[in-house]
Amino acid sequence: MHRRRGPNFTYVSGCVKYMIFVLNFIFWLFGGLMIAIGLYAFIDKWQATGLIKLDTIYDVMLNISLLIALLGGVVFIVSFAGCVGALRENTCLLKFYSLCLLILFLVEMGGAVCGFVFPRSLHGLLELSFTERIVHAYRDDPDLQNFIDFAQSDFHCCGLTSDGYMDWAKNEYFNCSSPSVERCGVPFSCCINATDISSGLVNIMCGYGVQNSPVAEASKRVWTSGCIEIVRSWAERNLYMIASVALGVALSQLFVIYLAKTLEGQIELQKARWQT
């Protein structure tokens, strides 16, 4: 015989319910912080430059402050749905939440599969198109310029593709036909020794005229390899670590989806009990 359940019995597990709530509350706060930082940087740049170009999808993707705000908005909305759905035991919000997590998981898996399946020639075409946009917008967007300078100086690279430092020939300020004093040069962040030892100041002229030099001679002054190749080499050397982190993230997402679906099923059982 089954033991008779008391009047206070509930199918909804408090452990599952509040675990989902706490996890999503943390991400909700993080999403709000991302929105605040992104909007602050976006408005500050707008006031400083007076012009922000958002004509194409590339303009949005290369606008770092706006991209942070948009990603923060997605995190904010999805985690808010998880918080309220768990706290108020709302199955509609929980279904929306688990669906968003499932879509994110499938996008991540699709990106990983495409990275292994697509031929390198196709990767090269995508890199070339994206490189031209990034290099061309180097001086037009202060946030993008700071990000590129940070990446080149920290990863010891110059440019993006396998052309390396010659990628900067695509920029209107650094190509050799430019009337600028920077013609045939590269940004100072490409220089091996950009900081003057005696004064401690950055020598912004250290990369001037380097495009006129062959690779052997240019390598004495600047980093000649493209950043994508450097990052790809680092990823290949640390493949097991990256795979472990990716597996951990994927399993965590699946676990949270499982919790959401479990809570959703418990709420449905509780509703059925009330109806009967």
UniProtKB/TrEMBL annotation:
It comes from the Eukaryota. One of its GO terms (biological process) is protein maturation. Its main location: other. GO terms for cellular component: adherens junction; cytoplasm; plasma membrane; pore complex. InterPro entries: Tetraspanin/Peripherin (IPR018499), Tetraspanin_animals (IPR000301), Tetraspanin_CS (IPR018503). It is a multi-pass membrane protein. The keyword Transcription does not apply. Keywords: Cell junction, Cell membrane, Cytoplasm, Disulfide bond, Glycoprotein, Membrane, Transmembrane, Transmembrane helix. The chain crosses the membrane at residues 21-43, 63-84, 96-118, 239-260. The keyword Transmembrane helix applies. GO terms for molecular function: enzyme binding. It is found in: Cell junction, Adherens junction; Cell membrane; Cytoplasm. Belongs to the tetraspanin (TM4SF) family. This is Tetraspanin-33.
